[in-house]
Design brief:
heterodimer, A: Alpha-Beta Plaits, Alpha-Beta Plaits, 12 helices, 24% strand, B: 482 residues, 4 domains, 7-stranded antiparallel β-sheet, 18 helices, 19% strand
Chain lengths: 408, 482
């Protein structure tokens, strides 16, 4: 933990702006914005100041009938959810450690979970934003109405910018009504090949899933049992639905019928409260491991099962949002050295690189070098991203080194 | 035509061929404005490239000769976004209209920017997927133009606007380099430059390829027409529907003024004596839509609807949508010219803004009719006038400014989907603080440091409105209104 002199915790957005201005004109120390501290990676910078934003947590305006809310960025996700639930509304982004994680952190890291297939990601909900740039200037973009194309969409620019362009201080969100009910269907199959075939079938399913997740198990356990020839921990497809009860019931039944020809080994369906433990498991996957190394990969959805097969062979436990081609994976506990980890990840990186994707570490022991694997097609856009970074933060004060601008 | 533009022509001909450019005054007239007809300016030359390489060559030539250039799609935009300020070269992308790839498994298509929006959805017919953004002009507007303005449409209430459906773009940047932002994979490295590029109104470069998200078709629809005595009752019903946690696929309002024109044009059987009608569509699974439709019917009736009709057949549904989407075309029956505004207010403020619009029309002695995306709070008051009448033009501009200012007072915006263009550039400093505009300008400077690409758009220049021949300075109506 940094000592008290290297931590600043503003109580108001004005305090924050003033502090950043003074820093920019005087000491020019590096600033590391932090929300709940649940998803940050170490910025390898001495003499940096941690800027803790969790005291900026006020609700500025909640016109519930307009289905928008304006809040300070340090509000905790659980607190926000509670406020919205009182009006039967929600922000449908699945976030682990919601008691701790802040909205600003979710935006800065572009955090997403299983519902992204049906509900989109945080970029689809941020309609207005205010932030403090490295010189201390507070600027805003967007507004408080659900449809607005005035000015450049800096909301999009700041989503996923990992605190490297500006410190997000206030956000306006558009909201969704709470779903009447939700349900999860689990299906296990002998192989990822079968899962892939089912995913292909579901492209024209009569149902409209909100969640299309695949869980790949540990390679060692997934090896076929010698007597039965079947894996003890087969891959699992999890399909989620939301809506009126009649709607979800119908979808569960229809989905099971559509999947029957693929001969799932087991099936299960969980509705309403009964599905809660499974929802939690899906939401907390990225933190639910003793592994010290967690990565995120993106690739075309059609390559997801191929990726999972490679990953499980290496002993990686992975969760794929298969409809979107997003995979989170934990390296085996035994991997403790960077070289080991990078060697394990290499075949996955090669696959990702060959199909236009991207792989980066979400969590790694401090002191490890960054790992960011991106297909060549990203090189030009990364170079332009770097130019933007230089323009908005010429002295490289905000989260230096956190964003990789060049292929590893 | 400037000297440098004269030198351009033979060299442009080398790039795009004889049939790839126009420069005779009469031929250029088509390109003097978009759907915002109040301000006009012809470009010096119009080129029709057929490939990214040709766009690159044209842009490099413009840079070499210091000539401004501007991209254009079908010219259906409504805020003067394609007005060639300072003349120069207009790069019209309508010949780059191929569908390069359809990948249903990965739910995307790659298209060239000149592809007409609805042609993509038509092409996808057999797949069970469609391209969701559906601007009313979708039969003519191009996807590249949609990217530039971040277009919306009636169904954006449920499905979102263009940016929510664009995975990536290839663009020729103002320096002539080609770059790909985003692509078929989500969550790429670096910043979301796709999101930044969409809606930048051609000021960051020229889009030459787009990766768009494909959306599964709904299984079923219910399309309702709520008939109300007054606009106020209709807006109350909207608020009640949204407040009940229902998100219809579309929720559109048409007032009495537009109903008459639509009925004359399409003979649908609209009630001519109604104060307003709501066109409401819910879509989704058959097992769910009926229940939603029944709830909506009940809410409409509780809020004073005289009756709620249903489209009984797909044919009837399509006719209703044809009426709505071609409403602007029907305006021709009401007046020789019109100017439509694109303000947004929080949904609950619709009664106030509509009342204000009525009052504004009365004060300026103008007929104003309304057809708009009520569910989003995105108003489209249509101000009717004759552009040959200078005094009417002056009053239209005054009334427009008042309406948009009122939208801001009510916590809204001056544009929901049409863009800033040149029309609303003078509102930017009312919407945004100097610091906001400074950051936006510094971002534009990264991509477009000489402001040679789409000059005079989106951001006001210090001390006024851009270059000397900026129409805000020169248009007689605008001058008189100032």
């Amino acid at each position: 933990m940094p000592d008290s002199q290297s931590v600043f915790q503003p109580a108001t957005q004005d305090d924050l702006a003033q502090f950043v201005t003074e820093n920019a004109t005087n000491a020019r120390r590096c600033l590391l914005p932090i929300g709940g501290g649940t998803a940050c990676r170490d910025a390898a910078t001495d003499d940096a100041i941690e800027v803790r934003l969790d005291k900026l947590n006020r609700v500025i305006d909640y016109p519930a009938r307009d289905m928008t809310i304006t809040v300070e960025a340090g509000i905790r996700m659980a607190e926000l959810a509670k406020i919205l639930a009182a009006e039967n509304q929600r922000l449908p982004i699945d976030v682990p450690h919601a008691e701790q994680a802040t909205l600003g952190g979710v935006i800065a890291t572009n955090w997403s979970g299983s519902r992204r297939f049906g509900c989109g990601t945080i970029r689809d909900y941020v309609i207005g934003i205010s932030a403090i740039d490295a010189s201390g200037k507070r600027f805003s973009a967007g507004g408080r109405v659900v449809k607005n194309v005035a000015g450049y969409d800096l909301c999009k620019l700041l989503v996923g910018s990992r605190g490297t362009l500006a410190i997000i201080s206030q956000v306006t969100l558009k909201l969704r009504p709470m779903a009447e009910t939700s349900a999860l269907v689990t299906l296990t199959f002998d192989s990822l090949c079968q899962v892939d075939a089912v995913l292909n079938r579901l492209l024209t399913s009569a149902t409209r899933p909100m969640v299309l997740d695949v869980l790949g198990r540990m390679g060692t356990l997934a090896r076929p049992n010698e007597e039965t020839g079947r894996s003890a921990h087969p891959p699992q497809l999890i399909v989620g639905f939301e809506g009126a009860s009649r709607e979800t019931d119908w979808q569960i039944e229809t989905l099971l019928a559509e999947c029957r020809p693929f001969e799932p080994r087991t099936t299960g369906s969980f509705v309403g409260a009964a599905a809660e433990p499974l929802w939690s498991m899906l939401r907390d996957f990225s933190i639910g491991s003793k592994s010290s190394v967690t990565f995120k990969a993106s690739l075309p959805p059609s390559r997801t099962c191929e990726f999972l097969r490679l990953a499980t062979e290496t002993g990686i436990v992975a969760q794929a949002h298969a409809g979107n081609g997003i995979v989170n994976g934990h390296l085996p506990d035994r991997v403790s050295k960077a070289e080991q980890a990078f060697a394990a990840i290499k075949p996955l990186g090669d696959l990702v690189r060959s199909c236009g994707g991207h792989l980066s570490l979400l969590r790694a022991p401090s002191g490890w070098p960054a790992l960011d694997v991106a297909a060549d097609s990203w090189a030009e856009s990364l170079a332009w991203a770097q130019r933007l970074k230089r323009q908005l933060d010429p002295h490289n004060l905000l989260n230096p080194g956190v964003m990789a601008f060049g292929p590893a | 035509m400037t000297q440098s533009a004269t030198n351009l022509i033979p060299r442009l001909r080398d790039i795009v061929g004889d049939d790839g450019l126009l420069f005779n005054r009469e031929e250029l007239l088509v390109y003097e404005c978009d759907g915002y007809t109040v301000e006009k300016k012809v470009p010096d030359v119009v080129v029709f490239p057929t490939s990214t390489e040709q766009v690159v060559a044209v842009v490099r030539l413009c840079n070499e000769l210091n000539v401004p250039f501007i991209p254009r799609g079908a010219g259906t935009s409504l805020a003067g976004g394609t007005l060639p300020i300072g003349g120069g070269v207009m790069i019209t992308l309508t010949r780059m209209k191929r569908i390069l790839e359809v990948n249903v498994r990965d739910r995307y298509a790659v298209v060239e920017p000149g592809l007409v929006n609805v042609h993509l959805t038509n092409h996808l017919k057999e797949t069970g997927y469609h391209y969701a953004p559906d601007p009313s002009s979708q039969g003519a507007c191009t996807i590249g133009g949609n990217v530039a303005t971040n277009s919306g449409g009636p169904h954006t209430l449920k499905y979102g606007v263009t940016v929510n459906h664009v995975l990536g773009v290839e663009a020729v940047l103002p320096d002539g380099s080609v770059v790909q932002f985003g692509g078929p994979c989500e969550d790429g490295p670096g910043f979301d430059l796709t999101g930044l590029f969409v809606g930048s109104e051609g000021t960051f470069g020229i889009c030459t390829k787009v990766w768009v998200r494909l959306t599964r078709n709904p299984e079923s629809y219910r399309t309702l027409l709520g008939v109300f005595e007054t606009v106020t009752a209709a807006t109350q019903a909207i608020s009640a529907i949204i407040g009940a946690g229902i998100v219809p696929a579309a929720l559109e309002m048409m007032d009495q003024g537009i109903i008459g024109a639509l009925e004359a044009a399409f003979h649908f059987g609209f009630p001519l004596d109604a104060g307003a009608v709501l066109l409401i569509e819910v879509d989704g699974l058959e097992v769910a839509v009926e229940e939603e439709a029944v709830r909506i019917e009940a809410i409409c009736l509780e809020n004073g609807a005289r009756e709620v009709r249903r489209a009984r057949t797909q044919k009837e549904r399509l006719l209703l949508w044809k009426c709505r989407k071609q409403a602007f075309g029907a305006i021709g029956r009401l007046s020789p010219s019109y100017c439509t505004q694109d303000g947004v207010v929080p949904r609950t403020k619709l009664p106030q803004i509509l009342e204000f619009i009525t009052d504004c029309g009365r004060r300026h002695d103008l007929k104003i009719v309304n057809v708009f995306h009520a569910g989003d709070g995105n108003i489209h008051p249509i101000l009717l006038f004759d552009e040959r009448n200078e005094d009417q033009v002056r009053r239209v501009l005054l009334a427009s400014d008042e309406i948009l200012s009122k939208c801001l007072d009510l916590g809204g915006s001056v544009t929901g989907e049409h863009g800033i263009g040149v029309e609303k550039i003078s509102f930017m400093d009312k919407l945004f603080a100097p610091e906001d505009l400074a950051v936006m300008k510094s971002i534009r400077d990264v991509f477009n440091p000489d402001n040679r690409c789409s000059p005079g758009k989106m951001l006001p220049t210090a001390g006024g409105c851009g270059t000397e021949d900026h129409p805000h300075k020169n248009h007689p109506g605008r001058r008189a209104a100032m």
